Amino acid sequence: MLARQIAQRNAFAAARRNFSTTRPQFSSPYHYPEGPRSNIPFNPLTKYFALRYWGFMFVGFSAPFGIAVWQTNKNQ
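C-alpha cells predicted for Cytochrome c oxidase subunit 8, mitochondrial:
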C-alpha cells in the first residue's frame, strides 16, 4: 500500500515536469553548421579525396609492419 502511494506520487511528479527545448540560434557565434558532411574535419567532395584517403589508410596499415621489419633487421 505504501509502495503504491510512493509510486503514484513519483509518477505525478514526473508528469508535472515540463521538458522543453529551444531552437538553436543560428546567429550565435557558438553554433556550428549542421547537416551531412559538416561534422567531419575533411571534405570528401574534393577531386583528390580518394587518393588521400587510401594513401592515409595504406600508411596507417603498413606502418606497424614496416616498423616490425625494421626492428627485426636493425641489429643484423
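The chain has a mean pLDDT of 79.
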